[in-house]
Amino acid sequence: MVRQVNQKDNQIFDRVILVILDGVGAGALPDSAVYGDIGSNTLGNLSKVFKEKTNRQLNLPNLGALGLGNITPIEGTPGFSKKQKGAFGKAMEMSRGKDTTSGHWEMAGLIVASPFAEYPKGFPEEVVKRWCSENSLPGILGNKAASGTEIITELGEEHVRTGKPILYTSADSVWQVAAHEEAFGLERLYMICKSARAICDEMNISRVIARPFIGNSVRDFQRTYNRKDYAKKPFGHTILDLLTERKVPVIGIGKIANIYADQGVHSNIDTKGNTDGIKTLIHQMDEIKEGLVFCNLIDFDMLYGHRRDVFGFGKALEEFDQALPQIMKKMTKRDLLILAADHGNDPTFRGTDHTREYIPIIAYSDSQTAQLPVDLGTRETFADIGATIFQALTGETNSKLPGKSFLSEMKIESS
Length: 415
Hints:
By secondary structure, the protein is α/β, with parallel strands linked by helices. It has helices spanning 42-54, 61-65, 68-71, 100-107, 125-134, 148-162, 181-203, 239-245, 256-259, 273-287, 299-305, 310-329, 383-394; strands at 15-21, 87-91, 141-145, 166-169, 174-180, 207-214, 222-223, 228-231, 250-253, 267-269, 291-297, 335-340, 359-364, 374-379.
């Protein structure tokens, strides 16, 4: 029997596991020219260059079995096969931008129609002076668009010597502050970033990011996982808010609570990169039996995309692929798994910034009865993910937020 979706159903699934492969795009969007991203394709280009660099194909058998190779051509990952299972598709971004905040907010049903403010030439002098005065800072270093690793190499030693924090930005709407965990102090870094959040609210800047690093000299400086994001508070309701109102738990793993400024997130477990995030997710699937388990795996973006590290990016995808069977083994027929991304970050592309791309969507449940993998096609908005989650966990088909659920396109057996 196939469960009929209607307003009176309490819920269709007990649990939805949403995993965001941060920065894993699936091909340039039609408007990519506006962003200078024509030709970007994180998955497709990565697979080609990975083969060139390693003399072997990217090995993603488990993601391939769920239809990843149907979304965009991936070297070594086959296209459509009757042996595949689940559902696959890709989604366009309606929001203006290609950043973490707009991507995550849109998948939760909040479209960012007006782009966040960007400061590619640095922040206004009067604003920086105000920030320094409010925090008794001796001044700042940088105040320009830069790569996070490169600016630490350039200014890290001067920062340690002078006590001046390193302020920088990127092509995204972000105010980033790098400081040495020991010489400057981690808690002090967090404090001045919280202060910057109030200023950035006035300037419509999406995120303030604390970027701590350690090391004794430029030869061994390295960033740590004590990074912390301070996002602008969502300007409207999201699916997370609607689930919370209905007493459906929302548990974040990784930087989820930071992205939504804690709004609509019941609890959050901080993680230190992909390996820890995957391990935490698998453990929490034994502990959390209902609600939305919302996990962000950051290393694709933070460690490999921005640094244009093809080999590291590919190995990280293979690591997740190898963990996928263990995740799926812990699922019951009352669970729905959704894999997606928030934007692209093509490690083969020029520059060090995000790329304006489609995001892949893969969905799977043991209760799906379709004999062939379901093609979800090209979705008009990331918000279809949130609409699907809302219907899966509440049985309601009208959240009054953007997005169209694709649950009806998956044949789900009632249990």
